[in-house]
């Protein structure tokens, strides 16, 4: 995988996490609730980047 593709995937995962956290907070969810779940969500997101989309690609068809 070219370095630029890997960088784009990492950046996209990071941006998606930021957007999701901001959306939840803007919707009135307590910041602490978002913060408590952030490490687990981050781990899942970057695991998807590391290991590919797996079953997600099949679910999108």
Automatic annotation (TrEMBL):
- What's the domain of life for this entry? Bacteria
Kindly provide the name given to this protein in its UniProt entry. Answer: Uncharacterized protein
Protein's organism: Streptomyces hokutonensis
């Amino acid at each position: 995988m070219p370095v630029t593709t890997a960088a784009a995937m990492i950046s996209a995962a990071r941006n998606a996490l930021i957007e999701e956290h901001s959306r939840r907070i803007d919707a009135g969810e307590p910041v602490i609730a978002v913060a408590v779940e952030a490490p687990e969500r981050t781990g899942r997101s970057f695991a998807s980047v590391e290991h590919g989309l797996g079953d997600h690609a099949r679910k999108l068809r």
